[in-house]
Write a structure and sequence with these properties.
heterotrimer, A mainly alpha, B alpha+beta, C alpha+beta, A: mainly alpha, two-stranded antiparallel ribbon, 15 helices, about 70% helix, C: Alpha-Beta Plaits, 2 domains, three-stranded antiparallel β-sheet
């Protein structure tokens, strides 16, 4: 094990551990701001550190501090304190573990060594995910049961039934997908999606499995307990469902666990159906071969994007009423200057790359970074779809949800398998 | 119309002499004949008084010139098809013995008689569950009796367990103790409320669950009981108007209008045309506000929180118009006996039209999310169905009744304030489920906006106050400079508007149903008794009929769909 | 002019409506429209940045009370007790004393209003024959840290200036 090997291992693990956690902050922000913009209101816009509000991201800091300092109540009527404390940990840990097999970039070839870009480079791939995600529901059931509270029990029961009902359509839609890709390993699946169908359509999952993508996405919403399937914690019906007796950090663990699960589900959907880290029409080899034109394109594109972004900031980051010595204009100036300095730094780096290091390992590292960026952007957009659906749709009733899972999703998933099988056999 | 009622009554009961009081026919019946008379009134097809509006009692202890017994119970009935209003009065010799119950004939009598027992102490023989409803279960005494000490504060120290009542309800459904002890069919008792995010206001819904299905349900109200009726006995008629604001606080001005309409009809005052159109415009505007609140809250309970904002943002914007006009956002107190407090301000038409357009936009946005959404259809179609017969029996009126298919609306059937000259539709439902209740309210918003626009075009110029010195405060110039003006002002403030002695009932189509007021006047400027006929109270009394057999989730959205407002429910 | 009865249409029968997804997607486009409208231009959000932006208070607004004065500064109130009688919540407590400047016989020596009992209905203003008490201070937020400070007396009532000009107040908005 050379030093490079150890470095790559550390980087991969760090990525797999810290990216979901930092994405939680982003997701909480996106949820609150997004919800507000959907509803014609502003969302959190007052928390600031010396005037820097970062569009509401500082609010997460305030929330975190509040949750840490809140009184952590273990109600007196609880008999099994171990399970009560264990439950949120289970939920959080399993959600975080699921991310281990998701590839965030193509296999990195440095010299003669190949490094698979997953947090834990196993080749069980999707089986790992299916196993661990089913484990998370134990946390919810334990939470509901050990709360010794009728609302909690109702929430736990609903969650258990829901997860079981929707694991099956999820698994079945995956079967047909795996039949198409021919492998269980997620890195291989991601590489497969770099090809072009008929010469011009990227062979992404949703093109290959249009029915399967719908089934999988609906099942993924149900697995993560997001609206319209959030009846386990339906606030207006059973108050808070399974986490009704929790406070402070334990509640924060549930809360973060839900967002991590949402992030991981989005990442998985992107990996399986939306091309993972692949930039459309530009596979890894193409990018490595044409590294210089790509970099030049980037060097031109960055200032353009920065210009429009700065214009948008200046237009919207104002106080909409009269305010002497407006702190927002100072803030806007700071943001714009930060943005432009970032652009300048990036341009300098790209210039150095162009002049000195084009060709060889630096190319591959550049492509790696581009692909990580593409993966994160796609996952971000998919998370936005989660938020978008949450604030549009009302929720299902418990028995209707079961009916859909068993009477509609399951037959559809089986039908999908048959159709996929027929097409594969007829084309082979 | 009322004459045919009198003829029919004379034909059936030759020794009872009906009198005509305003819109109603009043008969006095002896307690021995009460059950016979009531049965005939309900069941004979040519009488068919299927809607029991209200039951109340009067305590004549300090009434000047009273002969006869101390208590009298008054039943208010309506034949909605022919627009006949009937009041049956029965003296009560001994409140402990009381009267026979009519809860076998009308389901509404269940809670109405409980209220009479709670407030006056009159028992009803044969009542299935006679206990207190508005005051707490540890209360002693009967507050609306004239000899109750109003300075006695009574605190309740323990919650009411309601165990006996729920077991009785389970037994009525055929579930006995052995079923309940068997582990496969064991019942779980769950309290929804009183502190629950979805019971709007504090209402306790006590359910016996089998899994998630509600097998039996008992409700407890009275958490917001503030003693409106007792307070009103110590205030002049005009002073009660700000108190009526706080009844149905989502549509405060409609309560004001209903109240002064009742007093003006007794005084025989015909208000000016401009005042009538003002009342129509503002009444319909507040009806829109009330429906916006109800729909927004109901959709939140279903999980669609964005609709709440699309509907509420416009409601919040209309508070600008309301506060510019009346001086407050919620508690408008804008009517007076004889007219309106003030006229519109300059430029009101443009403001109002802007608000109406904004409301239409918000409602259309919300409808795009809800109208054809199958998730909403699955949740609301076919759940918590209320049949027309049950609705009438339990005293439902307003959009709740119209959603079952019965086209009864006081604006059409007993019109006032030129409503019959406007061009609008009355939307009715067909199945009486939650979907119909929601859609009827959406449609009523659009119809009310139509009425407002027509009225704004037609409103005449003129005074908003009738020129009658018995009720109208004189204009301030006369008060400052002339002694007659000052004396008139003085008498009206100190003694109040004096009404002739007697009893009467009048009603108005409020946002949630028929809002009626039953007055007893002793000739002075304060009412001797004032009873509000609250539509929400009767809507809540039939709640258990709608949710038994449904799931918890349905019960929650059902509570939102019948638009229960705590202020009106508990007074 | 006619009033017609109309049965509300029950949606949900067509095949496209029964496919959940079509209507879900249509609903999602509505919300996305709102999102982008607000993202690109956030000046039209329904947000009032209280307490920096105060709500608009019209001349008719029933805010906290004040007692008016004549031009020479003496109080207009003649302690006739009309406002105390007309108040539905009995929150005004007046004590009358003799007035020596010849304008009338009485003036208030004590004029307490319990702002916690007051229901802000404006009946005292309506009852006053001297235009002595008004609710036009424009103070809409009556808050304090102690109950005692919300029982205001004669000096405090006389000190507060009106929030609107006389012309605006008598016109009553517009």
């Amino acid at each position: 094990m050379s030093a490079l090997d150890i470095l790559i291992i550390l980087l991969r693990v760090a990525f797999g551990a810290f990216v979901p956690l930092s994405f939680v902050a982003v997701l909480v922000w996106m949820e609150r701001r997004g919800a507000a913009f959907f509803q014609d209101r502003a969302g959190p816009n007052r928390c600031n550190v010396y005037g820097i509000r970062a569009g509401g991201l500082i609010q997460n800091l305030a929330d975190g501090i509040k949750l840490i300092f809140k009184e952590d109540i273990v109600p007196g009527h609880i008999q099994h304190k171990l399970y009560f404390i264990l439950a949120p940990m289970l939920v959080f840990i399993t959600a975080l573990l699921c991310f281990a097999v998701i590839p965030f970039a193509d296999v990195l070839v440095l010299g003669d060594r190949e490094y698979v870009m997953q947090a834990v480079p196993m080749d069980v791939g999707i089986l790992w995910f299916l196993a661990v995600v089913g484990f998370g529901v134990y946390g919810i059931i334990l939470a509901g049961w050990s709360s010794h509270n009728k609302y909690g029990v109702l929430g736990g029961l609903r969650a258990a039934a829901q997860v079981i009902s929707y694991e099956i359509p999820m698994g079945l839609s995956l079967v047909s997908l795996l039949a198409v890709y021919g492998t269980v390993d997620l890195s291989a699946i991601a590489q497969y999606q770099g090809q072009l169908l008929f010469g011009f359509i990227p062979a992404w999952g949703f093109v290959l499995q249009p029915l399967g993508v719908i089934i999988f996405i609906v099942a993924a919403f149900a697995e993560t307990n997001r609206t319209p399937f959030d009846l386990a914690e339906g606030e207006s019906e059973i108050v808070a469902g399974y986490h009704v007796e929790y406070s402070s950090m334990k509640f924060a663990l549930f809360f973060m666990g839900e967002y991590v699960a949402m992030f991981v589900s989005s990442a998985l959907i992107v990996t399986l159906y939306f091309g993972s880290y692949q930039i459309p029409w530009l596979s890894t080899e193409t990018l490595v071969a044409h590294a210089r034109p790509v970099v030049i394109l980037l060097m031109i594109g960055l200032p353009v994007i920065a210009y429009f972004f700065a214009g948008w900031i200046k237009k919207n980051n104002r106080t909409h009423y009269y305010r002497a010595d407006d702190p927002r204009s100072r803030e806007t100036a700071i943001y714009v200057s930060l943005l432009w300095s970032l652009v300048v730094v990036l341009e300098v780096i790209l210039l150095i790359y162009l002049i000195f290091a084009a060709g060889g390992a630096a190319d591959r590292i550049l492509v790696l970074l581009l692909q990580i960026g593409s993966f994160l952007i796609k996952t971000f957009l998919m998370c936005f779809v989660y938020v978008w659906v949450r604030w549009t749709l009302p929720r299902f009733r418990y028995d209707q949800l079961q009916k859909i899972g068993w009477e509609k999703m399951l037959p559809l998933a089986l039908l999908n398998i048959f159709i996929t099988g027929a097409i594969i056999v007829s084309f082979s | 119309m009322t004459d045919t009622v009198s003829e029919k009554l004379r034909a059936l009961f030759p020794d009872i002499e009906p009198q005509k009081v305003l819109d109603a026919t009043v008969i006095d019946v002896e307690p021995e004949r009460l059950m016979v008379v009531m049965e005939r009134l309900k069941t004979y097809p040519d009488l068919d008084f299927s809607l029991l509006l209200d039951i109340t009692a009067v305590d004549y202890l300090t009434y000047p010139g009273q002969q006869g017994g101390r208590f009298r119970v008054v039943y208010t009935l309506r034949n909605w098809k022919r627009n006949w209003l009937l009041q049956v009065r029965t003296p009560v010799a001994d409140p402990e013995l009381g009267l026979p119950t009519v809860s076998g004939l009308w389901g509404a009598a269940d809670w109405a008689e409980r209220e009479v027992y709670d407030q006056y102490g009159i028992r009803f023989q044969g009542h299935p569950d006679l206990r207190r409803i508005l005051n707490h279960w540890q209360f002693e005494g009967h507050p609306l009796r004239k000899d109750y000490d109003i300075y006695k504060g009574q605190v309740c120290y323990e919650p009411d367990r309601l165990e006996k009542e729920i077991r009785a309800r389970l037994a009525a459904k055929g579930i006995d103790q052995s079923t309940m002890s068997d582990i496969n069919t064991e019942m779980m008792f769950l309290n929804l409320g009183p502190s629950h995010p979805a019971t709007h206001g504090a209402i306790r819904i006590f359910t016996a669950l089998d899994g998630e299905t509600i097998m039996a349900n008992v409700n407890e109200i009275g958490y917001l009981h503030r003693g409106f009726e007792k307070t009103a006995e110590n205030r002049t008629y005009n002073q009660i108007i700000p108190l009526t604001d706080r009844l149905n606080y989502c549509s405060a001005l409609m309560n004001n209008i209903a109240y002064v309409k009742a007093v003006e009809s007794w005084l025989g005052i015909e208000i000016t045309d401009r005042a009538m159109f003002m009342r129509v415009i503002l009444g319909e505007f507040f009806r829109v506000q009330d429906h916006l609140v109800c729909l927004a809250a109901n959709l939140v309970d279903m999980g669609g929180l964005t609709n709440y904002w699309y509907l509420y943002n416009e409601k919040e914007a209309s508070y600008d118009f309301i506060s510019r006009l009346t001086g407050a956002r919620l508690t408008s107190s804008f009517t007076r006996i004889g007219g309106m407090y003030r006229d519109f301000y300059e430029g009101w038409e443009a403001d109002l039209e802007r608000q109406l357009q904004a409301i239409e936009k918000g409602v259309n946005d919300s409808l795009k999310l809800v109208l054809q959404n199958r998730i909403v259809h699955d949740r609301t179609q076919g759940t918590c169905v209320l049949s027309p017969e049950k609705a009438l029996s339990y005293g439902y009126t307003g959009p709740n009744l119209r959603s079952t298919g019965i086209a009864f609306d006081l604006r059409k059937d007993n019109p006032y304030y030129h409503y019959d000259s406007f061009d609008f539709d009355i939307p009715i439902g067909s199945r009486g489920d939650i979907y119909d209740r929601i859609m009827v309210r959406f449609e009523e918003i659009f119809e009310s906006i139509k009425i407002i626009r027509q009225a704004v075009k037609r409103i005449p110029a003129g005074p908003v106050f009738v020129d009658d010195h018995r009720v109208a405060l004189p204009p301030k110039e006369q008060v400052y400079h002339k002694i007659e003006g000052l004396a008139n002002h003085f008498k009206l403030i100190f003694e109040g508007v004096k009404t002739p002695a007697g009893e009467w009932y009048d009603s108005y189509e409020a946002a949630n149903g028929e809002l009626g007021f039953h007055f007893v006047s002793d000739g002075s400027g304060t009412p001797y008794k004032l009873k509000v006929r609250p539509p929400c109270f009767y809507a809540m009394s039939g709640f258990h009929e709608m949710i038994e057999g449904e799931m918890i989730a349905d019960a929650i959205i059902n509570l939102g769909s019948i638009n229960i407002i705590g202020g009106e429910l508990d007074r | 002019m006619s009033i017609k009865v109309r049965v509300v249409e029950r949606k949900g029968r067509t095949f496209l409506e029964q496919l959940y997804l079509v209507e879900v997607v249509k609903g999602m486009t509505v919300t996305l429209g709102h999102f982008f409208r607000n993202l690109l231009d956030n000046s039209r959000l329904y947000v009032r940045h209280y307490p920096e932006v105060k709500p608009e208070i019209s001349p008719r607004w029933r805010g906290r009370h004040r007692l008016t004065r004549h031009e020479d500064g003496s109080v207009k109130c003649v302690a006739c007790f009309m406002c105390q009688t007309n108040c539905p919540s009995n929150c005004i407590m007046i004590e009358a004393g003799e007035r020596f400047d010849g304008r009338s016989e009485k003036m208030p020596v004590k004029f307490d209003i319990d702002l916690l009992e007051c229901i802000y209905c404006g009946y005292c203003v309506e009852a006053c024959p001297m235009d002595a008490i008004r609710m036009d201070t424009g103070i809409f937020s009556v808050t304090s840290n102690s109950r005692e400070s919300l029982l205001i007396g004669l000096e405090q009532l006389m000190e507060t200036p009106g929030g609107f000009s006389e012309v605006d107040y008598h016109k009553g908005g517009g």
